[in-house]
Write a structure and sequence with these properties.
By secondary structure, the protein is α/β, with parallel strands linked by helices. It has eight helices and 14 strands.
Length: 335
């Protein structure tokens, strides 16, 4: 729920909603013709779910264009690879510019292990800069968010705190891994409105400790801990009991993470990139639409690539430490 609307955080990769073209921020206003105005989030989710092969019709309001659209989705079992390369596979090739790329689809039980495998593959190929793509990643397991951060942080670094009115609900999570696995290599994290929850914990931590540059759009702002309290009549009360905070004590919930470098994409660019990522997404279009989507650019990824290429080029050309002029030293050529 966001602003009292049933709101799509991000369409999950390879899901019926993803393939149909539902976007981050879409508001579901009717399900099978029934208004969601007075419907709770659990009730909406229960209505959306059903047996594989059955259909459900959604009426969606898209705030970015103020349009109302109808979608017919066929329910299916959703199997997701949590970690993918730029081609939507698990091969992780390194381009000539030596900039590695990994996309986290969600934070599942094996996300950090799969990320470690990807980093190992990229390092063996001579990676010099790294892009972690958290766009359209709606989050997942808190422990996995901490484990992902550990891949880039020194042991003992604060990752996230949980704070509530009751001190018993307060906790802190620290990096306990082997240290930065890419040894201080320049790094950019891509985020957008579809980055939520665990994604925001990772982006907020790496931004606060200045380990990575955050680039893209402001994130969704989903960082609360909810407890379910059973009532005597068999119903239950869902109560927000705590919130997540970044290492510098910035609240995530309803605020999101503001990028260091804002790069906004249009709705068309957003849709085309998701179509490129979706298996069979381009095949569902007309010839003209397919050509446009297939050739669409990803301005956020391109900007991240340019930024890392500039950083690595500067690092290569900078004089070695022993050749730099010491403070106060006089140089004859400058007299």
């Amino acid at each position: 729920m966001k602003d009292n609307f049933v709101t799509v955080v991000a369409p999950m990769d390879d899901s019926p909603g993803f393939k149909a073209g539902i976007l981050s921020g879409d508001r579901i206003i009717r399900i099978d013709g029934k208004s969601t105005e007075k419907m709770s989030l659990p009730d909406a989710v229960k209505t959306l779910r059903g047996d594989p092969g059955t259909d459900v019709r959604l009426t969606v309001f898209r705030p970015s264009s103020s349009q109302v659209q109808e979608f017919k989705l066929t329910r299916s079992v959703i199997n997701i690879d949590m970690v993918k390369d730029v081609n939507g596979k698990k091969e992780f090739p390194l381009p000539d510019n030596k900039i590695g790329y990994v996309r986290l689809v969600q934070f599942g039980e094996k996300t950090s292990d799969d990320l470690e495998t990807a980093l190992r593959t990229l390092r063996k190929q001579g990676m010099q800069g790294f892009i972690l793509d958290l766009r359209w990643d709606p989050g997942g397991l808190l422990e996995q968010a901490v484990d992902v951060c550990e891949k880039f942080l020194p042991r003992g670094q604060l990752v996230v705190t949980t704070e509530g009115r009751n001190a018993a609900q307060n906790s802190s999570r620290y990096a306990s891994g082997r240290g930065d696995e890419i040894k201080g290599m320049p790094m950019v994290v891509l985020v957008n409105q579809g980055s939520a929850s665990a994604s925001e914990i990772v982006a907020g931590c790496l931004q606060d400790v200045k380990r990575a540059i955050i680039l893209g759009d402001r994130t969704f702002g989903k960082g609360s801990v909810q407890s379910i309290l059973p009532l005597q009549d068999g119903s239950a009360l869902r109560l927000t009991t705590a919130k997540y905070y970044t290492p510098s004590h910035k609240v995530i919930h309803e605020q999101g993470i503001t990028p260091d470098i804002p790069v906004t994409m249009s709705e068309d660019e957003d849709r085309d990139i998701q179509l490129q990522r979706s298996p069979g997404g381009l095949e569902s279009l007309t010839d003209k639409e397919r050509e446009r989507a297939a050739n669409a650019h990803d301005p956020q990824l391109e900007r991240a690539m340019d930024l890392l290429k500039a950083i690595t080029t500067f690092s290569e050309r900078a004089p070695a430490p022993e050749h730099r002029v010491a403070k106060g030293e006089k140089v004859a050529a400058l007299r």
